[in-house]
Design goal:
420 residues, alpha/beta, Rossmann fold, 8-stranded mixed sheet, 21 helices, globular
Length: 420
């Protein structure tokens, strides 16, 4: 059996995602699709619009054969860590042969060439990065600015130099390059493939397309999800509607208030232990949190050339969940994660037997959790998952009974969704 992995957030699952899964299976020729999905918080440093169990169900009903979770410890960090965790999860399964991802360009050749440059960092490239860092740019921005500079000087040759210069100007292209760069560094057996993202109004598909940002905005502003029904597959829309009929979307004002409380009452040493808290940003976070009552204003004031808005949001979430730098960095020195949590799976003997061939412990039953907890690193990841779920539950208008039925507070022992 062969499996094609897709690293994702599905926040929420929409027609564009359905198209991606369909094309992934078609182009890879694999028997099954595995979605490696983030939890209740996202790489934007924000709560997901709906809980991970609902999003996993939406995926399972629209092309996925199995959905496993990327631990919150890694899916709320930068693109490099996000890609590294996703690739390590995919690589731990013997039968995962392909990794498929969406990109604005759809140009796998240029993506591979850029990934090779970033993975090997030849001397001329390193020198240009150093110059950009000295000019006050962050490491990520310094690398992006160095690419067109070395291409213009003809010190690095690309098949399509014009495409390479602008490729990293778009978010999905950035993630695509990170995925391939990670595959190269990890010497992975997995073959990367990319699907060009379908834009709104495109004739390439026979259903309505909208991006997840616009869909989330509509949900939050109108409070009526019928407005976005045409952009979601029918079964995905039904799953979303069912969940939101029982509880609210996360309250972003409450999230902002909790974030400000955490920042304003923390001490410098405590914040310094968390991932990506560097260059004295902890002092600015504490000071500005004490001076501002509006979360959005606080975020804007904290941001700078080195610390983008997205980065600041991720840092704050890391501090709220006590995501420690030492345990994030441990990802670089461990070959595979200690466990992989299954959120949803189709009841097919082939896929169930295939996922057993994994170098990590695959968690589907209580016994698997007990076995995984013998590893201290696994305990750290699990306890952080409980904190993330507890924080997420505080943002919802939901009863005690509903909270228990959704397994929102603690789900490490919960059984996966199984579709017959």
């Amino acid at each position: 059996m062969s499996i094609c992995a897709v690293i994702c957030e599905f926040n929420p699952f929409h027609n564009g995602h359905k198209y991606l899964l369909e094309k992934a299976k078609e182009i890879s020729g694999c028997d099954f699709i595995m979605c490696i999905m983030g939890g209740n918080f996202t790489q934007r440093g924000e709560p997901a619009v709906v809980d991970k169990q609902t999003r996993a169900k939406m995926a399972l009903e629209n092309g996925a054969d199995i959905v496993v979770q990327m631990p919150t410890y890694f899916n709320s960090t930068n693109a490099e860590i996000f890609a590294l965790a996703g690739v390590k999860i995919a690589s731990s399964f013997k039968d995962v042969t392909h990794l498929c991802f969406g990109s604005e360009s759809g140009d796998i050749t240029t993506i591979k060439e850029l990934a090779t440059l970033l993975a090997t960092e030849p001397p001329v490239f390193k020198e240009q990065i150093r110059k950009n860092l000295n000019s006050g740019y962050s490491l990520g921005v310094s690398k992006m600015r160095a690419i067109p500079e070395v291409i213009n000087n003809k010190k690095v040759i690309f098949t399509n130099p014009d495409a390479a210069k602008t490729l990293l100007n778009q978010p999905n292209n950035i993630l695509a390059v990170e995925y391939v760069q990670t595959l190269i560094k990890q010497k992975s057996h997995i073959t990367p493939i990319t699907i060009k993202l379908v834009k709104h109004g495109s004739n390439e598909v026979n259903y309505a397309i909208s991006n997840a940002t616009s869909i989330r905005k509509s949900i939050y502003e109108s409070k009526r999800i019928y407005n976005i029904h045409k952009f979601l597959p029918p079964l995905a829309y039904d799953a979303l509607a069912e969940t939101l009929s029982k509880c609210s979307v996360p309250n972003l004002k409450t999230f902002g208030a909790l974030a400000l409380y955490k920042m304003s009452t923390s001490n410098i040493y405590s914040l310094q232990q968390n991932y990506d808290v560097t260059e004295g940003i902890e002092n600015r976070l504490i000071q500005l949190a004490r001076e501002n009552n509006d979360y959005d204003t606080f975020i804007e004031l904290c941001s700078s050339k080195r610390f983008s808005v997205s980065r600041i949001k991720r840092i704050i979430l890391n501090c709220m969940l006590d995501i420690r730098a030492e345990f994030v960095q441990k990802l670089y020195t461990t070959d595979f994660l200690p466990y992989v949590k299954v959120l949803a799976v189709k009841d097919k003997n082939a896929i169930l037997s295939s996922i057993k061939e994994c170098k990590s412990i695959v968690i589907m039953r209580k016994q698997d959790v007990i076995l995984a907890k013998k590893d201290e690193y696994a305990k750290v990841l699990m306890y952080t998952e409980d904190r993330a779920n507890a924080l997420f539950s505080l943002l919802l208008d939901i009863s005690k009974e509903q909270k228990q039925s959704f397994n929102i507070v603690s789900d490490v022992y919960s059984k996966p969704i199984i579709e017959k």
